[in-house]
């Protein structure tokens, strides 16, 4: 009984933390600050900094997205990966919005695309200035 109650509480807290956004999804609204360390880096670590992709050995397109390099690499001046304050002008965001089919740009390659909520979190982080927070 206690196990079911715990599972119910966890599910309730998870679902209640989500709010409908303007697209009607259950993503957390972009009204509070998005943290690179707690919101964005985990996306990179799970979906991007993998063998054959953006890890320290393969570093596809010379981009390493592990915890030690991710922020510095994506915000490197002159690369266009991230244009702080403008997700639509950021290569990271536009690449993530490319359909993940046989396209060269579909990310993450060979895996399920990032969720709408993950992509929205990245866009919010960029639009909020792409801070290292």
Topology:
Layout: H1 2-16, H2 36-47, H3 70-74, H4 91-96, H5 116-127
Helix pairs in contact: 2-5
Uncertain runs: 1-23
The biggest beta sheet reads: none
Head-to-tail CA distance between termini: 40 Å
| DSSP, total strands | 0
Quaternary structure annotation? single chain
* Domains (count): 1
Helical content stands at 25-40%
Radius of gyration using CA atoms only = 16 Å
Order of helices and strands: HHHHH
Question: How is this structure best described in words?
Answer:
The chain has five helices and no strands. The protein is mainly alpha-helical and 133 residues long. The protein has one domain (20-127).
Based on the model shown, name its key terms.
133 residues, mainly alpha, 5 helices, 0% strand, disordered N terminus
Short description:
With 133 residues, the chain is an all-alpha fold.
